[in-house]
Amino acid sequence: MYLSSLAPELLLNIISSLDANDLAQLVQTCRHLYNTSNRILRHEVDADTLEIVSDLWGHYTRGWDYGSARGGSMMFAVTFTIIDVEPGSKPRVSNLGSASQAIFNILADQITKRNKRIVDGKFRIGNEILDRDSIGYILRALNKYSHVHPASEFSITSLSTEFSLSQHDLSTFFDTRKLTKLSLRFPAAFWEYDYSMGFPNSEASQQAHFALNKKLLRDIRNLRDLLLKVSNLEVLSLRPHVSFFRVIQPLLVLPPALDELGQAVEGLTKLHTLKISDYLFHPAFFLPVPKTVKKLQYKKVNKLSQEWWSRFAKAPLTNVEGLSIRSDGIGLRSGGVFQKSEKGFNIEDIEIRSLKRFLCQGVGNPCLPKDLVECINRRNTGLEQSVSY
Predict the structure, then answer these.
(1) Least buried of 17, 33, 145, 153, by fewest C-beta within 10 Å?
(2) Are 357 and 323 in contact (CB under 8 A)?
């Protein structure tokens, strides 16, 4: 007698008694049973994982140091996608926040033994947690996973760190050569000024201020070094955490380290999507866009200076087809990033001529060029656009 010839209610009863491993094998060997057993398999796998984590949570989280979490900083969190038995089926996501060593060890087992795929991995790593042994196992498991799996099965759509880029080398956590998607959030060091050296409006005083900001320049170089190691990136999102209320003085000459960072990004020849939020290290620094990029997105653009907009307007952006520009709804504030003279400026013209889609939110914000939409429409005909104030 074949399983496919059994009555549905009897078949369902038999399948319900199998464990997840038996179900996985059964689904792959008999397509007739897929509709019945695959749904049970999903429930088995998810319920099994949740039961393990839930049982451990109550026993081991007592006494855990939540100091960072109370301060608004999650010490460690991870989200990953479970592999599905049937290709093309909807992926399922497992979540784990800050917890105990035992739970992290179970999660490491899930990654190494239960055939999880880190195709949409999201990680949040706090500075304090890296100095402990609590999550050493899971970091080693992730490192091993990234080295033995192909690039198609490993990507990071969100990597949030509570430490500066100069404190830890992120390439020690993962095989960065495998990464095809990377979204990186990190705290940005502030520019420090010693006005006893004079305002940074001459080359000599600016060089003195460069020397004063060694930590910030180290962060720039470390980001450059990281990007040099991710040559297979197709999607890159850079999301530095900056303060709108910090005064940033204009610089006649940007530090050479920023030019080196731009060269590293231009070397990402497989990149097709680039997303940037806030400003990178200085409001006047425009990060060069590789010629391969087709989708370009800028968020919180009201923190960018007039000099940045001038450089943006002159950039050819040769193959960009989709452009998204969004402000965060905050206008000018006293003592903020901008000088009052930058309110309501024009860029007059723009070089980009390849656009097919254009989205702009916050057109009425005085921190954006008054003629931005006009210039883009003049240079890009037949444009599909969405503009809002």
Answers:
(1) 17
(2) yes
